[in-house]
Amino acid sequence: MKMKGRTLAVLLVITMMLSSFLTIVVARNNSTFGALVGLESTAIGQGKQIPKDMDKLIAAYNTILNSYVEKKDGKELVDGAIRGMVDTLGDPHSTYMNAEEAKEFYSTLDSSFEGIGAEVTMENGKVTIIAPIKGSPSEKAGLRPRDQILKVNGESLEGLSLFEAVNKIRGPKGSKAELEILRQGMDKPITITVIRDEIPIETVQGSTIQTAKGLIGKIEISNFAEKTADDFAKTLKELESQNIKGLIVDVRGNPGGYLQSVLEIGNLVVPNHGIIVQIEDRNKKRQTYRSEMESAKYPIVVLINKGSASASEILAAALQEAGHYPVVGENSFGKGTVQNPFDLPDGSNMKLTVAKWLTPKGYWINGKGIQPDVKISQPEYFHTTPFPENVLLKLDMNNNDVKNLQLILEGIGYRPGRKDGYFDEGTEKAVIAFQRANGLKATGIVDQQTANQLQDKIIERIKDPENDLQLKAAIETLLKLIK
Q1: Which of 19, 138, 339, 435 is catalytic?
Q2: CA–CA gap between residue 465 and residue 218 (Å, rounded)
Q3: Pair type for strands 337-343 and 349-358
Q4: DSSP, residue by residue, 140-181
Q5: Catalytic residue among 161, 310, 320, 348
Q6: What CATH fold (topology level) applies to the domain 204-340+352-379+468-481?
């Protein structure tokens, strides 16, 4: 399925936090896929009789136009009706943009790839993060999968459509997005400030790791864009030229992307012409996609986490169920549906879920995710967040910022003695010890200067591969498979 340039722009909407066309998308106006999933080819106005159910809608439309206390524009009512129909589906991945919204959306994509860098969806009326993009401002600020965004720069997102919410979240490079976040496991919202930036669009990174059993390769895929498969093939060829003994495919924090992209990558890693994925349409008809690859060249391990969604779950499941390749990490996000965008006559756009995808063995992982063969989570300090601006934390305070401070102190080797968010004498002593060790005035109070150094130290610790427990587990698992 060949992707259009504009469809590529659709993919890159992740740079401005819109999930509507990302996860698993097929090309706009793709007749082949339309036939596959059983889409109706003849619509109202093309020889079809208007359904009787429409009588009620037309009656309501005319009644409002003729009787409501204020004059209303008919176009506005139609937009509201379509939005209501889409909302009735109860599907967070199906959305509607009116003509003005669609025009603004695409013009913005054509001119900018700046924002906070995360994919979002709408869950239970809340803007919810699927995954921050690797290396993006969202990841650096400490946003996590399943975080709910309640406010942006003090403005509530309550009642807004996903598109309207995204318009408030995105913005030019260097500007601030102060996000009020409700995080799972926390009773009260926290505030995270993200500095918008240009979002990295490089989706594949390769490296090698020297082990006792020889050189192994590692390929990170941040999302499945139009050129990701080509870049993956090139990177894999370079690694194989170095005679690697095994491969780690890292799709942690990968929110998904093009179906075609993951199929092409599957052709390079799923052996024995194994099944990569099955697509099931509304009539329960399935299309099976098999790999073009012959026998396996070397063992492979897949790394996943809670931010691995959609297309990345397809790849992980295909390798896992091929019978040779273990999956390491955390349970994945659980996004098992396929979306397709539809242009409407006036320039508006409707994106609908048109199919579900199943693993090679026929499992639907939607809402469940993929269970890793080797379960392992990162240390707690991997989930700390930057301190707010002008932070001031001291004895007897009790809040989420103090809890974050305690996790950071624990992570860099200072022992506050508790991690519940209460700033007691033990926490104060740990802060004083840190200040003395780093040439700061030993006050026991966390001001901006102390907070900045604490943040630098924890980032340094997180970036050190020696502290990446999931990667270590993946290497150990792979070494057991290398003969």
Answers
A1: 339
A2: 13
A3: antiparallel
A4: HHT--TT-EEEEETTEE-TT--HHHHHHHH---TT-EEEEEE
A5: 310
A6: 2-enoyl-CoA Hydratase; Chain A, domain 1 (3.90.226)
The set of residues, in sequence order, having a beta carbon less than 8 Å from that of 64 and lying 6+ positions away, is 72, 77
Right CATH for 380-465 from 3.40.50.300, 3.30.450.20, 1.10.101.10, 3.40.1280.10? 1.10.101.10
Torsion of CA 428, 430, 434, 440, to 10 degrees: 10
Phi, psi of 335 (to 5 degrees): -120, 105
Overall pTM surpassing 0.85 (yes/no):
no
Q: Is the dihedral of CA 333, 337, 343, 348 positive or negative?
A: negative
Separation CA 356–CA 417 (nearest Å) = 48
pLDDT band of 449, cuts 50, 70, 90? very high
The CA-based diameter of the chain, rounded to the nearest angstrom, is 81
d(CA 296, CA 471): 22
Instruction: Specify whether 75 is catalytic.
Output: no
CA atoms of 221 and 16, how far apart (whole Å): 19
Give catalytic status of residue 339 as yes or no.
yes
Does residue 227 carry a catalytic annotation? Answer: no
**C-alpha to C-alpha distance for 159 and 229, rounded to whole angstroms:** 38
**Residue ranges covered by each domain of the chain:** 204-340+352-379+468-481, 380-465
Q: What is the pLDDT of residues 151-183, one digit of tens each?
A: 999 999 998 877 788 888 888 889 999 999 998
* Burial 227-246, CB ≥16 within 10 A → b, else e: bbbebbeebbeebeeeebbb
Chain position carrying tokens 């408030």: 168
Tell me if 204-340+352-379+468-481 shares its fold with 380-465. Answer: no
53 burial class (0-12, 13-18, 19+ CB within 10 angstroms)? exposed
Contact call for residues 324 and 66 (beta carbons, < 8 A)? no
Q: Active-site residue among 168, 218, 306, 335?
A: 335
- The pLDDT tens digits of the residues spanning 11-41 come to 223 333 333 333 444 444 333 333 222 222 2
